[in-house]
Fold Electron transfer flavoprotein subunit alpha/FixB family protein.
Amino acid sequence: MSVLVYINSNGEKLAKSAFEVVTYAKKIGEVTVVTNGKADDSKLAQLGKYGASKILVDRSFDGIDEQQIMRMVATAAEKVGANTIIFSDDLIGKAVAPRLSVKMNAGLITGANGIPKDDGTVPVSVFSGKAFGFVKVNTDKKIIALLPNSIQPEETGSEATIEEFAGNAGDTRVKVKETKLPDGDIPLPEAELVVSGGRGLKGPENWALITDLAEVLGAATACSRPVSDSDWRPHHEHVGQTGVAIAPNLYIAAGISGAIQHLAGVNRSKVIVVINTDAEAPFFKAADYGVVGDAFEVLPRLTEAVKKF
Ligand code: FAD
């Protein structure tokens, strides 16, 4: 079976999700990757180790315009005769996959978090991660969007051939004037460890409590929505239903109540640690470990303890 995978190769290095989608596709069939932009061949060649046999690169555009990417992926799917197309269920995947689904008359499965069964049924996360579902589409062509951090990348392949290709991406009506990357070395959606703060931190002047702990742990930082709405922290750190959805190995939440809209973005975390003065805070119900205590006392002690390791 021919499987096509779209990856965004515009960053300095390939995102972890690129290796995840290739690993996932390899479990389904013969993998071709399609991408655009200026990524050098040595960067793309790494995907061979994870199971890609061919990589198609359209160098005619390097943006992330969803219409252009959609047209390019449709052209690639036609070229390789792919009947399954895989995206990462990230911001680009969410924008492109539904458009492609309409263009190709292909059934779309979003929120996939497991390998398809032999009968084509795909495990998905539903109700903001509160339950599992199993979805099957009956169209010949299928599109699957895989949730980031749902599977571990596996090195199962060897080498991929890299081929320049014309994806007929067409024009874009969007003009990019400036690209500003978020501060910090660890992109939040890919972070294995995350330290997050809420309104309980009282104000931006206290954020060293969060950033100090994040630094000693090598973690990314995040926040609740009111924190970013009040400009205490940048918007790209806001996690939840209306923010970034994350699934780190460890999520430490300090001074966050655990409203359902916040949990929707973090409840796929493997281990959740909650620090809150209120023993009745709803977040404790979702926590693996809880500290009923003042974040202003607990966080500095935690930071000092981690420093000793
Ligand atoms: P609060 O609810 O004010 O909670 C602060 C917590 O800090 C309390 O539990 C308190 O006990 C504790 N605390 C106080 N002092 C201390 C201390 N010294 N030490 C330790 N703990 C302390 N929210 C999101 O986060 N993400 C979303 O994506 C999101 N989307 C939304 C979408 C919609 C449509 C709506 C209506 C709301 C959304 N919200 C979202 C808002 C959400 O409902 C909550 O209002 C928000 O998550 C609360 O943020 P918080 O926990 O930081 O603040």
Summary: The radius of gyration is 21 Å. The pocket of flavin-adenine dinucleotide is lined by residues 198-200, 224-227, 238, 240-243, 254-257, 259, 261-262, 265, 275-278, 281, 294-296 (CB under 6 Å).
